[in-house]
Amino acid sequence: xxxxxxxxxxxxxxxxxxxxxxxxxxxxxxxxxxxxxxxxxxxxxxxxxxxxxxxxxxxxxxxxxxxxxxxxxxxxxxxxxxxxxxxxxxxxxxxxxxxxxxxxxxxxxxxxxxxxxxxxxxxxxxxxxxxxxxxxxxxxxxxxxxxxxxxxxxxxxxxxxxxxxxxxxxxxxxxxxxxxxxxxxxxxxxxxxxxxxxxxxxxxxxxxxxxxxxxxxxxxxxxxxxxxxxxxxxxxxxxxxxxxxxxxxxxxxxxxxxxxxxxxxxxxxxxxxxxxxxxxxxxxxxxxxxxxxxxxxxxxxxxxxxxxxxxxxxxxxxxxxxxxxxxxxxxxxxxxxxxxxxxxxxxxxxxxxxxxxxxxxxxxxxxxxxxxxxxxxxxxxxxxxxxxxxxxxxxxxxxxxxxxxxxxxxxxxxxxxxxxx
Length: 421
Ligand SMILES: *Cc1c(COP(=O)(O)O)cnc(C)c1O
Known about the structure:
Structural class: alpha/beta
Low-confidence stretches: none
Shape: globular
Bound molecules: pyridoxal-5'-phosphate
CATH class of the largest domain: Alpha Beta
Strand order of the largest sheet: 6-12-11-10-9-7-8
């Protein structure tokens, strides 16, 4: 799609007036700076607080106060099924069946749990492909996983780096590396989107390539969930995990989400580490010997539902249900293209946008690479009421989340940069 952008404020005003999602902004709290709401472009790190979470927490506090242990079966939202309340909205956001998704634990914990199910190395087939410069937690998880199985990370981990002088990977590069590793490849563990460059990878092509050499395809969707539309079921992704505090706006420490394709989850023989919450509900409370896994994603649940790190996600997902991923994504493509256009009108800023220009290969985020003074420019943005973040080396990440950011925000961002930088 091509847009007819110009540098007048009227473009932003007209786009906001035509935006069917403009009202959602009022349903979030914005931090204030110098008596004004900030321009919040950091939803890729921590989403804003939806105004409905306070009463949602209060509801569970009331159940606990009034029902105590009875809250598991009674109260407004019986806690026994608390994880299930996120299932339907998450299945729409991740493009999968409700039975393929569940919430539990935190992201890195879930990556470990899922990799322990799906990484089954042998002396011949033991390699894991990941992107060079993956999020540190993912690097540590894969490094310690292969050590746990007695392998040397130098042999077992294959990192794919951009070609010299390039900042982003090509799909051909990733796919040809998968073919090259062939029979030695046990698993691909890729970020769906690279946190630093903002590049969205071709999950479908990577999965198909991994399957063609009989390897597993797993993804960390921390920067994807609630940002872009994906079809995990149809693409036959084996497993995925994500956190809920970034684009999903569920607050710090929020419960993580996982996807396990039904071709694995429905098979009780698929290895999974057990706990009573993943056991068949019919026998869970019989307290008998012998783990009988649920034959869906919640067969990976271990512990009693953690109500207070799930309640904010439950509330936030109501907004996603109303807004719809299709409309969010359509607005996001427009909003990010507008941001890109306006930054290009500021040659004095002397930065390179390293995020792909192709809207299909990016989400809300643009990563601005500064050869010098990146941190200084970042600090100046912060003191001017613009919340963005800085990642070494040299990158300021700017992410207008479509749920609560407006075209006027993007214009104000441009105006501040134009007048003060
Ligand atoms: C944010 C993020 C994490 C964080 O993991 P936690 O276990 O929630 O601390 C991990 N991986 C990626 C790719 C991320 O973007």
